[in-house]
Amino acid sequence: MGILRACSVCRLFHVLVLVCALYQILYVGSVAAQTAQLSVDASPQNAQVIPGNMFGIFFEEINHAGAGGLWAELVSNRGFEAGGSNTPSNIDPWLIIGDESNIIVATDRSSCFASNPIALQMEVLCEASGTNACPSGGVGIYNPGYWGMNIERTKVYRATMYIRSSESVELTVSLTSSDGLQNLASHTITGDKEDFVEWTKVEFDLASSGRNTNARLQLTTTKSGIIWFDQVSLMPSDTYMGHGFRKDLASMLANLKPRFLKFPGGNYVMGSYLVNAFRWSETVGPWEERPGHFNDAWAYWTDDGLGFFEFLQLSEDLGACPLWVVNDGASLNEEVPSATIAAFVKDVVNGIEFARGDPQTAWGSVRAAMGHPEPFPLFYVSIGNQECSKHYYKDNYVKFYSAIKTSYPDIKVISSCDTSAISPVSPADLYDVHVYTSSGDMFSKSRMFETTARNGPKAVVSEYAVTGNDAGRGTLIAALAEAAFLIGLERNSDVVEMASCAPLFVNDNDRRWSPDAIVFNSWQHYGCPNYWMLHFFKDSSGAALHPSTIQLSNYDQLVTSAITWNSSQDGNTYLKIKVVNFGSKAVNLNISVTGLQTDIQTFGSIKTVLTSGWLRDENSFQQPDKVVPAASPITNAGEQMGVVLDSYSLTSFDLLLGSSQGMHSAWSLHSSV
């Protein structure tokens, strides 16, 4: 009896707990599903045009973003210059096949290229047969590329190298697995002793019969003697637009529809010391003649195959305006005083001539010789990299500004100083802003430019990113905070000209900075949540911004904007309403649109949402699509409509206006986001 009574009490207790739990769930749910009012004035007379180059991308050579990344060259240290000018030197990552009893390699200064004099001497001590026979397969050298070469079945790779020898040559060039056991492709170079007495360029194609994501390039022989090598290159024949960019990574950039490309840095422009700064004139011309340099800001060598010309070409291929960040005589640890800055000023003017000059000009002729006689549309030049606090910057800046405007008055010059330092004696067309902060602070900075004076130079927010503990390697919460910040830039685009995130790329084998927008290795890639967030803004540049207000008591976690934009893909016009819900509560949103000159179509409107199950969810090689936009048709599209905003989400409502080509075309347009 006592036991039964105790069980009854137990049951009653469990029922009460369940009732309390249900009450709590219902209560929290009712609080979560608050109702907000969003009003959009879509009348043309109250709209303002967002700058045509508002949203772009910023490339810096960091995290092996270019060398071993966007630039498709597969050989690392192709010219053997990375070990320095003193010989013998380190030839990393090159290694020998064989051992010191049958092969000796050493660098010397015998190259035929004066600007990069280092070459590699390979002395083979063994023979094809006899008592001193070479190991099976021969001896030689191999290059693993940047953490393995991605060799794909049936793909063709262009091999180029310079060879010298006073003896006859029998050399096998192969693509193999990392252990050399799987042969993917091979080519034999033969020649009599007189054929290679002088440095000779050899080019040929290697067609792969298999696939290996961790392959290597090897050069082997069974013939004794000495052979010199220099400028050994392996490029995929299938690159983006045929211009040397890794196709999958460049396509990810193109999908963002960037309106400008800022390059090449960042600290990379400056260098820790000027001896290692990015010098544009040493990165143009034939790739074999480029000396390369040590990227001491981020601690790795670059052959400068991705040089000034290639950045301009990439801008053209992406349909983006180039924005060149110049070295203004400052490194992270040094400055050139104003009395001796003239040579640096002249160098920048020469660089503009390379980009824009007629083929008859000194530097324009160099560009034309590289296959681009037409000038590149370079109209933005940034003087330095956030250097306003440096001792000589302000005086030096005036000299750069004056020289550029004298020769190219249509170029917009960007200052590292804000409006407090800009004046008639120190003028600027635009000023550079960098924002790195926590997610909470980034969200609050959606109002950053609301109190900015509406006259004077406009801001270029050329670097922004959420950093800190909640940024991880690219989290949902970081992407949402950045989205709110960008909506704030849209709403204040009368004082903001351009914006781009940083950094853009990271090779997963060399994370110098996190988070980044795009992660890759030799054969894989994925976009982080903030990469997918940028897709919500790729139609904003040049669009019409409409006034919008949102009302919700005791909940300040919503940020919104509204634009109308024209699709080049289907020819339709859309009203896009974006809302960031940065809070933990779902929101019932009542949208009211006034001032439209055409109706919102019943069919063909799309809702796109970026969210996930946890604030710190990230994408990865294992789960590349964990946090990506999800699109669905809007079934109640109209000037008055009720929708639900998920907690911690970015939502866009693309409402089809006017004459419709049908739901199918609109759905096709958005399902590829």
Automatic annotation (TrEMBL):
Keyword terms: Extracellular matrix, Glycoprotein, Hydrolase, Membrane, Secreted, Signal, Transmembrane, Transmembrane helix
Catalysed reactions, as listed in the record: Hydrolysis of terminal non-reducing alpha-L-arabinofuranoside residues in alpha-L-arabinosides
Superkingdom of the organism of origin: Eukaryota
Chain ranges passing through the membrane: 12-33
EC number(s) recorded for this UniProt protein: 3.2.1.55
GO molecular function term, any single one: alpha-L-arabinofuranosidase activity
SUPFAM superfamilies: (Trans)glycosidases
Compartment(s): Secreted, Extracellular space, Extracellular matrix
Broad class of the protein's primary localization: secreted
InterPro entries according to UniProt: Alpha-L-AF_C, ASD1_cat, GH, Glyco_hydro_b, Glycosyl_Hydrolase_51
Main enzyme class: hydrolase
One Pfam family it belongs to: ASD1_dom
UniProt domain Alpha-L-arabinofuranosidase C-terminal: residue ranges: 462-649
Hydrolase recorded as keyword: yes
Protein family per UniProt: Belongs to the glycosyl hydrolase 51 family.
Record-linked PANTHER family: ALPHA-L-ARABINOFURANOSIDASE 1
Protein's name in the database: non-reducing end alpha-L-arabinofuranosidase
Originating organism: Urochloa decumbens
Lineage: Eukaryota, Viridiplantae, Streptophyta, Embryophyta, Tracheophyta
